[in-house]
């Protein structure tokens, strides 16, 4: 009597994979077209989430790089993933009816996870867990949380930069969110909170940690270091504005120097993460 065939690697079952991909694309295009357009507008016009354009492609590359591992994973379709799919659908309905972009974005991520679990089994889902979870960095959160976090980051950056500038010898004082210098007054706006850099750098920290080869605690520590590195980078940036304004005037400091400084300091923060990665040997 012939034995029952064992499970096959899902990536070798090309017909099944093609059907699953086409079905997923059709479902997502039908249910999430409006969501995709909303996210695109948000990434285009909201500096806090301007990095969102990169998150999807990075996730796809991460998944593609796992193709050799996935060839060894047996196909084990299961109904266990359907509750996740159902939750994603309910979250999408709530997001559309309440016009809550965050719900719609999270719904899309849950749908990807649920369909992967349902069609290909828990083994595939475990290996694709990080590429799927990485999509969260492109999703928005509640505006009240963003505003509160932005305000607290501004407060920390303002106090830190004023203290550092005074230590250097720059005559500057802080009142509220205004920096008073002999050459004028600079106001720390929401864009100077460093929230943009914090979100982008934590995404990079997560990517570095995932691609690292050291012990798990070293990689978790590397990811955690992305937060203080981002905070320190923003403090240094505001301090440089104080120094430049003290040497010239506030008009020049808040012009081209301000715009270029953000990119330069983010580059230094990225370099700091690379050095930390080597220091932690991961």
Straight-line distance between termini: 52 Å
The dominant shape is: elongated
Largest sheet: 3 strands, antiparallel
Mean pLDDT: 85
Derived from helix and strand composition plus strand pairing, the structural class reads mainly alpha
- Beta strand count: 3
How big is the Rg? 23 Å
Tally of alpha and pi helices: 12
Q: Order of strands in the sheet with the most strands?
A: 1-2-3
Uncertain residue segments: 1-6
Helix-strand pattern, N to C?
HHHHHHHHEEEHHHH
Helix content: over 70%
Quaternary assembly? single chain
Characterise this structure.
- The protein has 282 residues and is mainly alpha-helical.
- The chain folds into two domains: 127 residues, no CATH class; 136 residues, no CATH class.
- It has twelve helices and three strands.
- It has a three-stranded antiparallel sheet with strand order 1-2-3, with helices on one face.
- Strand 1 and strand 2 form a beta hairpin.
- Helix 1 packs antiparallel against helix 5, helix 8 crosses helix 10 and helix 9 runs parallel beside helix 12.
- It is elongated, with a radius of gyration of 23 Å.
- The N terminus is likely disordered.
């Amino acid at each position: 009597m012939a034995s029952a065939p064992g499970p096959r690697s899902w990536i070798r079952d090309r017909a099944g994979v093609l059907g699953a991909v086409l079905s997923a694309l059709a479902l997502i295009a039908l249910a999430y077209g409006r969501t995709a357009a909303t996210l695109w507008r948000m990434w285009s016009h909201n500096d806090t989430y301007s990095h969102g354009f990169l998150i999807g492609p990075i996730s796809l590359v991460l998944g593609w790089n796992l193709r050799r591992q996935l060839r060894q994973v047996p196909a084990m379709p299961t109904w266990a993933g359907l509750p996740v799919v159902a939750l994603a659908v309910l979250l999408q309905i709530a997001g559309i009816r309440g016009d809550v972009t965050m719900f719609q974005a999270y719904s899309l991520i849950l749908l990807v996870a649920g369909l992967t679990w349902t069609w290909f089994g828990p083994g595939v889902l475990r290996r694709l867990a990080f590429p799927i979870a990485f999509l969260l960095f492109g999703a928005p959160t509640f505006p009240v949380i963003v505003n509160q976090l932005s305000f607290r980051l501004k407060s920390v950056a303002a106090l830190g930069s004023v203290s550092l500038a005074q230590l250097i010898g720059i005559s500057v004082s802080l009142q509220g969110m205004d920096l008073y210098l002999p050459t004028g007054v600079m106001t720390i706006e929401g864009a100077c909170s460093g929230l943009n850099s914090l979100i982008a750098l934590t995404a990079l920290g997560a990517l570095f940690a995932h691609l690292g080869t050291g012990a798990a605690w070293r990689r978790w520590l590397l990811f955690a270091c992305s937060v203080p590195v981002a905070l320190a980078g923003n403090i240094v940036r505001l301090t440089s504005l104080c120094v430049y304004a003290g040497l010239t005037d506030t008009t020049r400091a808040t012009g081209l120097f301000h715009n270029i400084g953000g990119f330069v300091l983010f580059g230094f923060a990225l370099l700091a993460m690379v050095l930390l990665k080597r220091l932690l040997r991961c």
